[in-house]
């Protein structure tokens, strides 16, 4: 308990100190404006809080759950009159870093996968994606919507169904990553399905928005959107595979340093994310594709860290057997090195994404019992609709795939806010969708962790 | 030549592709807004261009010069009708990353120094700082100002003198870092002096602004500003040294992973940068102080990279002598590891700072011959004024210290723009100061590089 007490003191001092400073007259700096300076503090505070939250690992939960929950806590303190953390919600610089964070995360996830693995699970991922879209859409639009909210227009049900379709890959990817299970077939299927989901989700969003605003949509528009999205994915993968070795070789002529290796990898990810965004897809889809096509072998012309070279140097006097063993390890390290280079960037940016995602959860939407009950119903439908898709994943742990597809995250919220801004979704229905997103997002990490651990240690009867 | 041709093709394809996309109708993404998406592209492009510019290393120049020059080129293409890069100049997200970059750079520079070293050069750094402020100030205010621009009010000369005082530590630190000379006494003296300069510069700015706006300034205000600035520096160093080991030990109880080590170090830097900003100092001064007080030993409770552990594991079967040697190297690596962990962040952010700094250089201000000649005069004074300070650096390479203090960078521009916005500096005088900043910034890297190389290889007569 002593360490908790000490920790609380550190955090308290940070918070009080900042509070005192924040209330003192703002003295704008000589070379940076006020908003940049305060953001420096928020970044540090959120990173430290995220690490405090990783105490959850001690009870076997992935640290992403800790980050989300910490976000939920500090994001809802305003309900008890503490407004200290509120400025974070409107800090655009922080929001940008968070977005960069999820892009880097999906790039890392893509790096740990590769085309060959994806091809192996491709068909199953496709089936899972299709079922995981159709099932919740039909349930939402034609059954649960009319049942729970009778007498509304069919457009409303359409939006409810659409909001139930899109999988948020961030949460699931992070859980698999935290538990070191990214390379399992289950993880690969979920990742592949989530990417395909995003493409389908884009098309659904366009269709539903068009129906809501102009009452109809032409087949031409639908096919144009579909074509662009699919062309991007195929184009990115083909072009990326073709160009990556060429670019790697080319730039290694300028410099073979670690900085060049890092820059090429990150720039690759950012350009793909940008192109995806340009095509109307989520930038994370592009970042994932970039990671997928980049193979460590493309960087074999670049240097490994100096410490490894030092070790190898000192091994020159060793007996042959040991020397070879060391060389082998060093070679392995050199190949893994891109991932290791990206890691610090991910330490810096990724927690900002999950903690701010948590902050956007508004607990006061849970206070209305009637809405809460309906929302729990919708959540069960949301979970069931995706869970079913797991049965099409072939010979793997179907529960794991099914639950891996459950989180709706920010994509569900986008549907909800567009529907709300178009005046289609009432405040009540908007809250219901938000609560569904909260539940699916927060329930997935512990459920996946439980399923993975159960699989690892079969119960002894 | 072949590789240059190939390089040009890659860059051209990037640029044309982006141009084509940029002109196509903007399709806002599903989960990120347009400004974030385009910024992703700018980051990638600038990072790649910065790496292309590092070709300058092949002719023995530090890569920071390449980054600056690349910035100057792309920032001035609008003069020949190419407006492609112009949006970068108003991209606030990019500006924020650049600012983060220089903070991380000064933190790294601080990490490579430590309190003990600084104490050793403290007095000399102080002398260099004082002389380096007084000399250009007197030259500017009382001699060159009245001589070159006769008949203006004394306030104008005051601003000109003030603009000549502030050293920009970023450029010099980066040159010493690029050439691996940060630990030399010369570098330490310049760094110490530049930090003290920033404190003095803050006071001068306050005084000069007050005189310009309200005609006078109370001694109370001057002492209050001075007190706050000095109290921050002393407070940060004392408190930091006291708290760092404690915080390190505390958080290692939650987690001893690499992520925790990274987070603590970066958060430390950001909090110090924030506090400096709050006190009206440049955030980089705080980041440098944070690096200064953080010692690798504070992180000895944290893990080293897994690759090193793997190597050590495989060394178990080695003869004692070799095993010890490997352990020693691994231990060394573990201590250096914080710096290595920060490095990728610096690859990502630091080039953005220097390339955008270069972009802010407006070559059209050089087109007016009369202004240009006057500006060259002022530049020589600026250089001479700082060069003289090198003679107070004791038994070191005085040329190196003197020229190390020369760059004015962004701080000089702040003086110029405040003077201009207060209506004190005419457009001409503003241009003169800008040109002085350009010259001191761009001349320093090659001069320092020349001096360092000359020192390394004494001429054989």
- Please state the overall shape of chain A, judged from the principal axes of the Cα atoms: globular
Greatest chain-chain contact: A-B, 98 and 99 residues
Taking all Cα atoms into account, the compactness measure Rg of chain A is 24 Å
User: What's the CATH topology name of chain A?
Assistant: Na+/H+ antiporter like fold
CATH class of chain A: Mainly Alpha
Secondary-structure element series of chain A: HHHHHHHHHHHHHHHHHH
**Quaternary status of these chains?**
homodimer
Helicity level of chain A, as a percent range? over 70%
Stretches with pLDDT under 50, minimum 5 residues of chain A? 1-6, 15-32
The CATH architecture of chain A: Up-down Bundle
Distance between the termini of chain A: 36 Å
Mind explaining what this structure looks like?
The structure is a homodimer of 461-residue chains. With 461 residues, chain A is mainly α. Chain A has a single domain, classed as Na+/H+ antiporter like fold (Up-down Bundle). Chain A is built from 18 helices and no strands. In chain A, helix 2 packs across helix 14, helix 8 packs parallel to helix 18 and helix 15 packs across helix 16. Chain A is globular, with a radius of gyration of 24 Å. At the A-B interface, helix 1, helix 2, helix 5, helix 9 and helix 10 of A face helix 1, helix 2, helix 5, helix 9 and helix 10 of B.
